[in-house]
TrEMBL record:
It comes from Arachis hypogaea (Peanut). Gene3D superfamilies: 1.20.1280.50. PANTHER family: BNACNNG10540D PROTEIN (PTHR31672), F-BOX PROTEIN CPR30-LIKE (PTHR31672:SF13). Residues 6-51 form the F-box domain. It holds the Pfam family FBA_3. This is F-box domain-containing protein. PROSITE patterns: FBOX (PS50181). SMART domains: FBOX. InterPro entries: F-box-assoc_dom_typ3, F-box-assoc_interact_dom, F-box-like_dom_sf, F-box_dom, Gal_Oxase/kelch_b-propeller, SCF_F-box_component.
Length: 339
């Protein structure tokens, strides 16, 4: 069987094999690394990893989009600790280890590679409590760099970003920002911008704090209308679930496309009690108590899965699987990268 696979691999030119492999899902590529040494070398190449990600990301339907739920499939050095997900970008997950002195962790679940990122302050919990720290992960295409953005409140709002390529922290001007963010420390990364939900004032009016990855600046995004909101990432766009008290107490789903808000044709009664995570192809995925649920745009239950975890929204994230690695300039060792 092995000799047959080797012979078949020699029939097609390697450049043609590459064009075919570029359209395959990550799960298939992982298996096909065993076909031959040439295929292993090709699939493991950083150039192919980038081409594959860009090809699948541009496709109408990305077959590599997954809902990650934290389980035992974690880097060995943090499997026994309490963790939360702070964001994701291009196949990498930003994890927080809730142990004194532990750094943040960048982790690619597909390749197993991971890298620690030190906090910008010696003791982040000195800000008051662990819930007073907000973080996010984004990618700057112009410089091929991953940025870890952290904000906290200690007498005044303070924000910094960590450049993976330069291995350094820099301060972000934030004098005009609101004092507090809601108790949800994970950001949503969409179209080059990180988003957090924040309180506008003591009356608990909401707004959105946005960080432009390329421009390295913070700004405020207004809500489409007033009311009580939740937040999620729907179909690759920034999404909001809005509780409308004037129309039979139903949830409305809003998404931002090209800097403007659009209301989707989704009916979700209040008694569903669903915390939305993702909306695509006419179906909404979210959490309800200890269940992961999928409902139609008419509010009909399609599928459910029992999950056993507190703070489920901080234990799961929608992300796109990839074979990408962090920039070499970061100075990672092969051992820590899991290679």
């Amino acid at each position: 069987m092995k000799h047959e696979a080797e012979a078949e691999a020699k029939v097609l030119p390697l450049d043609l094999v590459e064009k075919i492999l570029l359209w395959l899902p990550i799960k298939s590529l992982i298996r096909f690394r065993c076909v031959s040494k040439n295929w292993l070398s090709l699939i493991s190449d950083s150039r192919f990893a980038k081409l594959h990600y860009d090809t699948t990301d541009a496709a109408p339907t990305n077959k590599n989009t997954r809902l990650l739920y934290l389980s035992s499939e974690l880097p060995l050095n943090c499997r026994h600790f309490s963790l939360s997900i702070l964001g994701s970008s291009r196949g990498f997950i930003l994890l927080r280890i809730h142990v004194y002195g532990a750094p943040l962790l960048l982790w690619n679940p597909v390749t197993g590679s991971h890298r620690s990122v030190p906090y910008p302050v010696a003791d982040p919990d000195a800000c008051g409590s662990s819930n007073n720290l907000w973080s996010g992960l984004g990618y700057d295409e112009s410089s091929d760099d991953y940025l870890v953005v952290v904000g906290w409140h200690q007498l005044r709002p303070q924000w910094q970003y960590f450049s993976v390529r330069t291995n350094s922290w820099k301060e972000i001007e934030c004098g005009h920002l609101p004092l507090y963010l809601v108790d949800d420390d994970s950001a949503r990364f969409c179209n080059g911008v990180l988003y957090w939900l924040a309180f506008k004032d003591i009356a608990l009016n909401f707004l959105i704090v946005a960080f432009d990855i390329a421009g390295k600046h913070l700004s405020i995004v207004s809500f489409p209308t007033s009311g009580s909101f939740g937040r999620g990432l729907f179909a690759g766009c920034l999404g909001l679930s809005y509780l409308n008290f004037t129309e039979d107490q139903k949830f409305e789903i809003w998404v931002m496309k090209e800097s403007s808000w659009t209301k989707l044709n989704v009916v979700l009664p209040l008694d569903h009690g669903i915390h939305p995570l993702y909306f695509t192809k006419g179906e909404l995925v979210g959490t309800k108590n200890n269940d992961l649920v999928k409902v139609s745009d008419k509010g009909v239950l399609v599928e459910s899965l029992r999950i056993s975890c507190r703070d489920n929204d901080l234990k799961m994230v929608m992300f796109t699987q990839s074979l990408l690695s962090l920039p070499d300039e970061f100075g990672c060792t092969g051992e820590e990268q899991g290679k």
